[in-house]
Specification:
mainly alpha; 4-stranded antiparallel sheet; 69% helix
């Protein structure tokens, strides 16, 4: 499109100050796109309507109608425009349209007259900082910080490391206390906004600690950590607001503590950090939430085995003073650091009113399989099935590939609970031949023990061994048991089912007389009809006429 046509159109419009009409960040982003040559193929479709393509990762089609008038209308294909009705692509096109005019030679240039220095079109931060003096800027910052607490806090947070005080730990502590005062009662309780502000500062301090570690400024890193870590745990103890954000910060602070201790620190600084961490670990507002990341475990990792006794004692003491889930976790930490589990440790668990299973779950989470296995094996009583202990032992035997113990406990757990999942796990983990042998032995044992019939019936059904199920039900000699499973057997073992049914009915009627025999037959008739086993009904009727013609009342039941 010819530039002069653009000029004629745009010069008729007013208010070309893009910088005053849109957000400063949006203006900067649009101007960067324009300066980078992102605006392509400007076209004029009709009066006051311009269209172009703007490259920003991909090409976006942008339209502007009446570019610099109050009735201006715009559109863009990007998602930001759909949500905000403006975007950097629109601003980039506006810059292109405006500069299409300003690029034309002025009257002064044409006549050769000297051109006056260009004045900025709009007021923005960059222009202000270029023009004002240092003294003016300092005066503004001082006055603004005096009247705006958030600005003053951010100023201190950003530049605290630049100011070296007599006590740098107090520098950070006092800053944090100004955000959330020590909790001495309802009157001093911080509100949700203040907690949110404190969380943002703690996040900034975590970044600063990481920067200090990267720059090997270990003393400065500890000065910030000293105040920030304790304040974080204090806030988490007293306030529920921002719980997810604070929990994430808790993970971050434990992680950067480990990173700091992993560095080659001066001996005196390392000793100071250890002393601080142990003190924090024992404070009432520090709570144990993770078997992986907690101060006692971090400290123990610092020490040789013969130096850990003090940490182990602290874990034991804390486990007796805390309640609920935290006690279970502390006991897991204690057993893990202690590394032993015998009669005295078992007695400790019994007296603690804490579930041994919960302790073991923490140990399993930490990967301390050997200790968890020892504790669970010690607690497992084959005479009294405990499904929680059995489930975790089976999990461990699978993970450790211990098939011998897996076979033993899975079979025992099935016999105790009749839960077929134990046999499913066993079948999945061992060879087909071994599983078949175990199944055969189990069937023999259950028959010999005259165990609950459902144990064997579930196995036959699980294996889809319909012939075996049919033989077992025949051996049981119970019509009532047969009636529970005849729906399946009628499909897969029909001739044998009919044979067994008639055999059992005949045997019963030969041994019984009287009214209850009619009720017995009537119940069977109703059941057979409900299951729609017509072939069975015909056979029973045939047998009754053949063998009990002398008892006409019985024949009437089946018609």
């Amino acid at each position: 499109m010819r530039i002069d046509l653009l000029k004629n159109q745009i010069l008729t419009e007013k208010g070309r100050l893009i910088e005053l009409l849109y957000d400063e960040d949006l203006v900067q982003a649009g101007e960067q796109l324009y300066d980078g040559g992102a605006v392509h193929d400007i076209s004029k479709l009709e009066a006051n309507l311009f269209i172009a393509r703007v490259r920003d990762g991909k090409m976006y089609e942008v339209e502007v109608q009446s570019p610099f008038a109050k009735k201006q209308k715009t559109s863009c294909e990007c998602t930001f425009f759909a949500q905000n009705k403006v975007c950097r692509h629109v601003v980039a096109l506006l810059f292109a349209l405006r500069n299409a005019v300003s690029d034309q030679p002025s009257a002064a240039e044409k006549t050769g007259k000297p051109k006056a220095p260009a004045k900025p079109i709009s007021l923005n931060v960059a222009h202000i900082l270029d023009e004002i003096s240092h003294e003016e800027l300092v005066s503004f910052v001082r006055n603004y910080a005096r009247n705006d607490k958030k600005f003053a806090t951010q100023l201190k947070v950003n530049f605290a490391r630049k100011i070296d005080l007599v006590d740098n730990v107090d520098k950070y502590r006092n800053l944090l206390n100004s955000l959330v005062k020590p909790h001495t009662g309802q009157a001093s309780k911080a509100n949700a906004s203040e907690i949110r502000g404190a969380a943002l500062v703690l996040e900034e301090f975590a970044d600063q600690i990481s920067d200090c570690i990267a720059l090997r400024q270990f003393r400065e890193a500890f000065d910030i950590l000293n105040s920030a870590f304790a304040k974080l745990e204090y806030i988490r103890h007293h306030y529920a607001a921002q719980s997810d954000n604070l929990a994430s910060l808790g993970v971050t602070y434990h992680r950067i503590t480990k990173e700091l201790l992993a560095e080659k620190l001066p001996p005196e600084l390392r000793a100071e950090i250890r002393e601080y961490l142990l003190d924090l670990a024992l404070r009432s507002y520090y709570h144990y939430r993770s078997i992986h990341l907690n101060l006692l475990s971090i400290l123990a990792a610092e020490l040789k085995n013969n130096e850990k006794s003090g940490i182990i004692d602290r874990a034991h003491e804390l486990s007796q003073g805390r309640q609920g889930e935290e006690r279970a976790l502390l006991m897991a930490i204690y057993f893990s650091l202690h590394g032993r589990y015998g009669r005295s440790e078992a007695d400790l668990v019994k007296k603690s009113s804490v579930s041994l299973v919960r302790i073991c779950d923490h140990l399993l989470e930490a990967g301390d399989d050997a200790l968890a296995l020892k504790m669970l094996s010690h607690a497992y009583d084959p005479r009294h099935h405990d499904k929680d202990i059995a489930a975790r032992l089976i999990f461990l035997y699978v993970r450790l590939n211990d098939h011998t113990r897996l076979e033993e406990i899975a079979v025992r757990a099935y016999q105790s609970s009749a839960d077929i999942k134990y046999m499913d796990i066993l079948k999945r983990e061992i060879s087909t031949e071994t599983y078949a042998a175990i199944l055969t032995k189990l069937k023999v044992d259950l028959l010999a023990e005259k165990a609950d019939p459902n144990l064997l019936i579930r196995l036959y059904r699980k294996e889809e061994d319909w012939a075996g199920l049919m033989s077992y039900l025949e051996a049981l000699g119970s019509v009532e048991m047969l009636m529970q499973y005849d729906g399946l057997l009628y499909k897969f073992q029909r001739p044998k089912l009919i044979e067994v049914y008639t055999k059992l009915i005949v045997g019963y009627l030969e041994d019984h007389i009287g009214e209850h025999t009619y009720q017995y037959l009537s119940n069977i008739k109703v059941h057979i009809a409900h299951q729609q086993m017509d072939a069975l009904e015909r056979k029973v009727r045939e047998v009754l006429h053949e063998k009990f013609a002398h008892r006409p009342a019985l024949l009437e039941v089946f018609g």
